[in-house]
# Entry
Amino acid sequence: MPAMNCYCGSEKTFDNCCEPYINGIQNPPTAETLMRSRYSAYCTQAGDYLVATTHISTRKFHSKKDILEWSKSNQWLKLEVLNATENTVEFKAYFLDNRLKATVHHEKSTFVKEDGRWFYVDGVFY
# Structure
């Protein structure tokens, strides 16, 4: 069976793109890479990774139970990165909600790097 393209849209295979980050084998080198791997984590219901890569200052607002519930209730279709700076990423995540309604999650996320690791802090939603 051929290797599957990564969920994040990079055109690399999942095992050569986001999977090593999600499995803790490598740390994402940039805020955009972390954001892409977090999208892939939503696609694969990797709740532990999503919690672990959320900054400690905002982690209390993101329970693993709620993350997994939202992750599983949607069919993730496509990620589109609109703009990325060193510590922000604006993106659109396309998905079908639990009623199969086409939906777009448009967010500008803020990230911080601490001790050589990137973390999601928060986002502005459009």
Q: What stands out?
A: The first strand starts at residue 75 and ends at 84. The two ends are 39 Å apart (CA to CA). The first helix runs from residue 19 to 22. DSSP finds four helices and four strands in the chain.
